[in-house]
Write a structure and sequence with these properties.
Length: 437
């Protein structure tokens, strides 16, 4: 199947959006586990790491943690459930939609059916109509035009604004109601009642190339009530039909991006994200990572951050090669963290090509990279120790760029099978040897 990393030029035709009973996409670009509970809500944490891994497709990589939905009295909520959420992607017929689907994995397998002696038993997969469509209804043309021409609300306060009692203003209170365009290669994370979507690659069917959004918007969708409605709600009022989906609204914010003071901000080598502005550096697709929840030892406040590594920035060149626009693929090798509350990106580690030289017990010299090389189409997730003391970003595999074909400009790739661990506290990389490699 076509992958953005491969610079696909496949032509995709569109059709009118429909309302099937289950997702029909060929490439679902984000998936995750969201847990609903009758107990009090909590932020996504590593204690639920057994169900914290998001699925990914060949078109993207994404990972996240499980999260409990909003707090409510037990009598007002339906029984506990755990959902896998899939977002985005495309089909051969439709590239213009950004679907959101949920599947109750806590009941994904029914008990074995009654059978005669000697007959094969086993679990029965659930029917395809058990998927819940959480895709918000399309906005009208006026709202769509407004979203295209406005990045932020005119009354939005500054980044360090506080309210009357001195508390920081919640930037999401000033978000625009704008939906994400169709895309692949984005990252999705779930926290509390909300699903967050970051980055991604948009397909230009006219020229057959992938692009990023003009600005690195972050999107948020409240799926809590749709997945865990009041106990008295009628069956079907769970967001799966048009009446339930009408209450779903996307929010959009333009984040800030901060980089270490030593990082240059004027453009130089576009393949190095430290040589461009921070806002341009975070605007990429195919970044992979997960949700990192930590507690500030001084204030005791919980911070939730989406930590991502690598990915793909693309640059389209106007010069025509064999009658088409040429796409230049720029894999990345840095680590960024997006704070879900302050709406701020921070670079945690720049891309590095340094090597470590050590002597072996036999007197030989061993040369090894001190950090993973730039890559895309990799897998990554955040893992926290059982005691909650340490958290790590684990990265495996992917593809690194070898060069470009001199005739048509397409990218030559090499598959990777290395395993790296990034300590989120010390911000240091360690390679873990795997066999076979």
């Amino acid at each position: 199947s076509a992958s953005p990393a491969a610079g696909s030029t496949s032509t995709l035709t569109s059709s009118s959006p429909s309302s099937p009973s289950s997702p029909t996409v060929n490439h679902l670009a984000g998936g995750g586990l969201v847990e609903t509970s009758t107990a009090a809500a909590s932020s996504a944490s590593s204690s639920s790491s057994a169900s914290s891994h998001w699925t990914s497709s060949s078109a993207s990589s994404s990972s996240s943690s499980a999260a409990s939905l909003s707090s409510a009295p037990a009598a007002r909520r339906r029984p506990r459930g755990e959902y896998m959420i899939l977002t985005g992607g495309f089909t051969d017929e439709d590239w213009h939609a950004f679907p959101v689907w949920a599947f109750d994995v806590s009941g994904a397998v029914r008990p074995p059916p009654a059978s005669d002696e000697g007959a094969e038993g086993g679990a029965t997969p659930r029917a395809r109509d058990d998927w819940i469509d959480l895709t918000p209804l399309p906005v009208n043309e006026s709202q769509s035009n407004f979203c295209s021409s406005n990045s932020v609300r005119k009354d939005a306060p500054g980044p360090d604004a506080t309210d009357d009692d001195g508390s920081p203003v919640n930037p999401w209170d000033y978000a625009l109601e704008c939906a994400p365009a169709a895309r692949v290669g984005h990252l999705s994370v779930a926290r509390g009642e909300y699903l967050y979507v970051l980055g991604g690659l948009l397909y230009d069917g006219r020229d057959g190339v992938f692009q990023t959004e003009e600005e690195p918007f972050v999107y948020r969708l409240n799926v809590g009530d749709a997945l865990n409605p009041p106990a008295g709600a009628a069956e079907g009022d769970d967001g799966g039909d048009a009446s339930g989906r009408a209450t779903l609204r996307w929010q959009r914010l333009l984040p800030r991006a901060l980089a270490p003071p030593s990082s240059p901000t004027d453009a130089a080598d576009p393949s190095d994200s430290s040589s461009v502005s921070p806002m341009e550096a975070v605007n990429r697709g195919e970044m992979a990572g997960g949700l990192w929840t930590s507690v500030d030892p001084v204030t005791g406040q919980t911070r939730a951050r989406a930590v991502v590594y690598g990915g793909l920035r693309v640059r389209d060149i106007d010069s025509r090669v064999e009658g088409r626009v040429r796409q230049v693929d720029l894999p990345q090798g840095d680590v960024w963290a997006y704070d879900l509350d302050s709406n701020t990106w921070e670079r945690m580690a720049e891309a590095s090509s340094d090597y470590t030289v050590t002597k072996t017990e036999f007197g030989d010299v061993a040369i090894a990279p001190s950090a993973p090389g730039a890559r895309t189409a990799h897998a990554a997730t955040v893992v926290t120790s059982p005691d909650g003391v340490s958290s790590e970003l684990v990265v495996f595999g992917g593809m690194q760029k070898l060069g470009e074909d001199p005739w048509d400009g397409t990218t030559n790739w090499e598959e990777l099978s290395d395993l790296w661990v990034f300590d989120l506290e010390t911000r240091a990389w360690t390679e873990r040897r795997v066999t076979p490699k």
